[in-house]
Write a structure and sequence with these properties.
The structure holds two protein chains of two kinds. Chain A is an alpha+beta fold. In chain A, helix 9 (322-330) links the parallel strand 18 (313-316) and strand 19 (337-340). In chain A, helix 13 (508-516) packs across helix 15. In chain A, the strands form 13 sheets. In chain A, strands 8, 9, 12, 13, 14, 15 and 28 form a seven-stranded mixed beta sheet that branches. Chain A has a six-stranded mixed beta sheet with strand order 41-42-43-40-34-44. By secondary structure, chain B is mainly β. Chain B has a single domain (3-97), classed as 2-Layer Sandwich (Folate-binding fold), CATH 3.30.2270. In chain B, a hairpin with a 7-residue loop joins strand 4 (52-58) and strand 5. The longest helix of chain B is centred in the middle third of the chain and has 9 residues, at 36-44. Classes of the chains: A alpha+beta, B mainly beta. Chain A binds chain B through residues 236-238, 240, 266, 411, 414-419, 426, 429-430, 432, 523, 556, 558-559, 561-562, 564-565, 686-687, 718, 721-722, 725-727, 729, 867-868, 872-874, 877-878, and chain B through 1-3, 13, 20, 27-28, 31-32, 34, 36, 39-40, 42-44, 56, 58, 60, 64-66, 76, 84-85, 106-109, 111-115, 117. The structure holds zinc ion. Zinc ion binds at residues 6, 8-9, 59, 62-63, 65 of chain B.
Amino acid sequence: MTESKIYFKFDGKKYAGNQGDTIAAALLRNNVRLIGRSFKYHRPRGIYTCGIEEPNALVQIINEHNEPNVRATVKKIYEGMIVKSQNRWPSLKTDLGSINNILSPIFSAGFYYKTFMGPKGFWKNVYEPLIRRTAGLGKPPKEFKSKSIHQHHNIDVIIVGGGLSGLLAARKFAGTNYDVLLVEREDTLGGVLKNADKIKFINDQPADEWLEKTERLIRNSNNIKILKNTLVTTYNFSDHLIALEDKNVGKPQDNEKPEFVLHKIRTNHTILANGHIERFITFRNNDLPGVMLAASFEKYLNRYGVVPDESPVIFTNNSSTFSLLKSLTDLGHKPKAYVDIRDQKNIEKETVDLLEKFNIPFYPKSEIEGCEGQKEVKKVSIRTKKNQISKIKTSMLCVSGGFNPDIHLFTQSKGLLKWDETLLTFKPDRIFQKTITLGSVSGNFSYEKLLVEVEKKLSKFEGLNELEVKFELNGPEKFQIKELWETKHEKKSLWSKSFIDLQNDVTTKDLRQAVNEGFNRIEHLKRFTTNSMGTDQGKISSINALGIVSKILKKDISEVGTTTYRPPYSPVNFSAIAGRSTYEFYDPERKTPLHSWHIRQKAVFENVGQWKRPWYFKKSEDETMHQAVQREAEQVRKTAGILDGSTLGKIEIKGKDALTFVNLMYTNSFTKMKPKTGRYALMLGEDGMVKDDGIVCKINDQHFIVTTTTGNAASVLAHMEEYAQTEWPNLNVYMNSITEQFATFNLSGPKSRVIMSRVFNDIDFSNDKFPFMSFDNFKYLDTEIRILRASFTGELGYEIYVPPSHALKLWQKIFIYSRDFDLVPYGTETMHLLRAEKGYIIVGQDTDGTVTPLDLNLNWMIGKKKKDFIGKRSLTRTDIIRETRKQLVGLVPVDKTLGIEEGQHVIEQKDLSLPIKDPIDMLGHVTSSYFSPNLNHSVAMALIRGGKRKIGSRLFVSTENLNTIAVEVVEPNFIDPKNERMIL
Amino acid sequence: MFTIRCPYCGERDQSEFSNGGEAHVARPKDPEQISDREWSEYVFIRANPKGIYYERWVHTHGCKKWFNAVRNTSTDEILKVYKMGEAPPPLKEFKNTIKTPSGEPDVGSGNFSVKKP
Ligand SMILES: [Zn+2]
C-alpha cells in the first residue's frame, strides 16, 4: 500500500504523517512523546490516550486563528498544519515554570481559596503575577469570524454512537418507518471493531467485512441518516440533544464553507450506545510521557497502524489487556513485562498461555510502584508479590485500571446511576427520559449478552428487523477486574508525585489533605481540590478519585456518590455556538427610509435598540460632535430644524372598546378629548412607576394611534396585549404595530409654519385652523399623509407621517422650500439637548423604573376622575406619596462657565477632600446635562431626595476629580416656561 | 430546554415562549376600596413553590397568545396547558408526580446522580 505523506509542523519542526492520522498518532509515528507542560507544575506531559478523554496532549493550532486547547488525540492533521505546544516558556524542553513543581506546597489543595483569603496584599503582589505567568493552558485567539451553522432535527430515534451496539440497533431500524439519526464521533463507524482485535468473525466473515456490509445496508435504507465526526455534547430535557459536527476533519479551514454544524435534535427516543472509557491507576509519577492507557495503545495499533512502542510494560487489574498482548505479539513485538495485580489463578488462561508462548516476563499479584525519568519514562519499579521492588528499563508503560460506562450523557438526562460490585463502576440504573442504553454504556461488557440486550430493549418498537448475528471472539469472553485505585509507593524526592487529575495537576495527596481539612462531601472536595474540573472533566480519573476518597472516608463508593455531570460532554467551540449570529448578523439592523440621505449628509449614527439613528450631522470633516450639536440646537430655535423620527413606535388601537382600553392603559383621561386631537400621555406599570410615554391621537372613540419611545415599541405592544388578553378579555379591542408603515419627520422652530405652508400650500396652518395638539389626514400626491402639530423642542412644531415610499422625496422637497431659512437637519443628541432646555423627560434616562409621575411633577397628566388605570392604586400608597422621595429638579451651575457631568452625585457639602471621615449623604444624581447654546450655560436635570422642597436652594455636584460644583436648584424648565413659542 | 404545547399552535420549542409568572392572580376589581397591604400583595407577592405551579405563558415568537400551564418546577415537566379563562385543573390531578415527603422526586431532580442506597 503506498500512502502519500502529509507534512505538518510541531513547534517549528516538520514531521510526516499518514492520511487520517491525528496529531498524536503522527507524532507517535515520529517518536515524539513530549507534547506539553502541565497546568500548575509545568511537568512534562505526553500522550495519555487516543481520543476525546485526553487530559494531557492539548495543543495550539496556529494556522486556525491560533485555536488553543485542541486535543492532539482527536484533531486530524493536514498538509501545512502548524501546531504548537502550550504552557511552556521559553521552550518545551527547558521550561522555567517547572520551578512550580518545587514550590508545590503553595499550589496544594484549596490553593485558590486560600490565596484569596490573604495575607493582605499577597494576592495582588505575589500570587496573581505568579499564577498569571505560569498557570493556565493555551492562549486565547485574538479574533475569529464564525462560519458555523445550526441545523435542527425532529426525529423518532437518535442512536448515539456508531460502534458495535449502535450498529446493531441501526441494523434493526434499517428500512422501517422510523426516522433515525445515527451519530458517530469518529470518521468511521465500528468503534471497538476498529480499535481492537477482540472479535475474529461476525457471521463467519472477518469483522471488517461485516462492518462494511452493515454500513452499506444502513446507508441504503432511506430512513437512517448517518452523521460522522459528530459528537453529542448535551442531553437536555424533553429528549433534546445537541451535537457538534466538525466539517473540517483532516482539511485546512475553508473560508467559504461552514467549520462546524451545531445539530439541535428533538427526538422521541434516545438510544445511548456511546460506549465506555478506560481509566488509569495512580502510582508515583503516573504522569510521565510514556505512560499510556492500554486500550489507547491498542487503538493506535489497530486504527492508525502506529506502534507507539515495540516493547512496553503492560500493567493491568483486569482481563481486557489480553487483546493488547495479542495484537503486539501478532505484529512480532514483545512486551518487556506483564504486570497484573490479580492472583495467577484468577488470570485468564488465554493470557497466561500467550505469555508463556512468547516467554514474556510475567508478574502476577504485582503492581507498578512508580516510574523514573526526566522528560519521559526510563524505568519502572514493580512491587512483586513478595513485596520486593524490581526495576525494569522501558520507555513505555501501558496501564489499564478498568472501564467506566460513558455515563456522562445519561446523567445529563437526569437518569440515576448505581454502583456495580463486579464491574467496579457506576452504571445506568433508572431512566428519567425516553432513554435506552445499549452495550458497554449500560455496563454490559459481554458480546454474547449484547445481542440479547438489543433484542430485549428494542422490543417495544414495532416492525423492526430480526438480527442474525454470531460472534467468534479472539480472547476471554468474561470481563474480570480487581479493585485498585492507587498503588503503594515509596517517596523518592520532592519531584515525585502521584496524580489523580492530570489536567488540573491534582495529586492524591491533595485529596487526603482536603479530607483532613474537613471537605468530606464529594461536591465540596471537587471544588476545593479542582479535581475533575479541567476541560476533560476527569474522564479517565473521576471514578478513581471516588474510589480513593471512599477509602479515606471508610464509606462505600455508592454512599460517596458522584459529582454532577454537566453539559457539554466535551468543550464546544464558541464559533459553533455563535453560528451565523456574529457581527452584522448578531442582531438585525433597522434603517429608516431616509438612511441614504443621512449618509450623504455625513451623519454619525447612534444605535437605538436595533435602529440606526443620526446622532449628529458633521457639517465639515473637522467639526467636532460638540460643535455640531451646538450649531444644530442654535439653528432650530433661530429658524427651523428637522429630525428623522421614523423610529418612534406607532401602535394602532381599534375596536368598540378602544376608548375604555386606552383609558386603562394610560394615566390621562381621553373621554372628553375631541376627535383629531392628540395628548401627551404616560404609561405606568402596576407598581405606579413610569414605563413609557408618547402621544395618544384620537381619530374617534373606536380608533386611536399611539406613539411609543423608540426602544420600547415592542414591549409596550406586548404590555397592551397582555392586559387585553388576560385581564380584560371582554373588551373588544385590537392592537397592531404600524411603526414601519410611516416615516415620521419632526419639523420644529419659529419658521416651521411658513415652511409647512410652502410645502403643503393647500393646507391652512393658522393657529385657529391648526391649533397645538391637533392633527388631520391630507391627500398628498397619490397617497395620504397625517400631520400632527406637536413639539418635543418647545418650539412651534409639526410631525409629518408619510408612507415610506414617499418619504425621501418629501424630505428633500422640504429642504428645497426652506433654503432661505437654513433649515438644519438635526440628530438625537440635539433632540436631547433641546428637550432638556425645556425640562422634558426621556423615559429610561431621567427615569429608571423607580420614578412615579408625581416624582416628575407630571401630576397634571393623571386623570384623577378616572376610576381605574394601570398603576393608579399604587400612586396613593404611603411610600409613593412620601415627600422625601427622589424628585426631578433642574440644576444650573452658579459659575456659568462650568459644566455638570451626567451621573454625578448631588450632595449638600462642598468639601470632598481626602480622607473622607464621615459617610457623605447622597441626595441623588444628575440624570441629564447639556451645554445650552441658547442660554450660554449648562442646564441639568437631577433626581434628588425631597427635590421639590429644595427648589431655590444651593447644592453641590461632585466631579470626576473629587471636586464639587455649586449649583442652584430650579424648576426643570429653562427656556420659555410659559410655552409661548410652542402654542402661538 | 423543553417543549411547550401552545393551545393554539401545538408543540413548539421553549425558546419561542416567555414566562409570565403565577397564573390566577386576579387583578382586584375595585383597587380603590382595598388597603395598601392588599394592593401591594397583588402587585409584588407571588408564590414560588417547588413542585406543582400554575403559571402564565405567552407564545411570544408565534401566535402571541397568552395561556396557562401547570408545571412541576422541580422537573420542569409541563403537565397541562389550557386557555385563558378556562378553569384551572384541580391540584389533586397532579399530586402523584411528587413522590417523596420532602417534595424531591426520586428521579430527575436535584444534584444526586447516584440512587440513594
Ligand atoms: Zn401559539
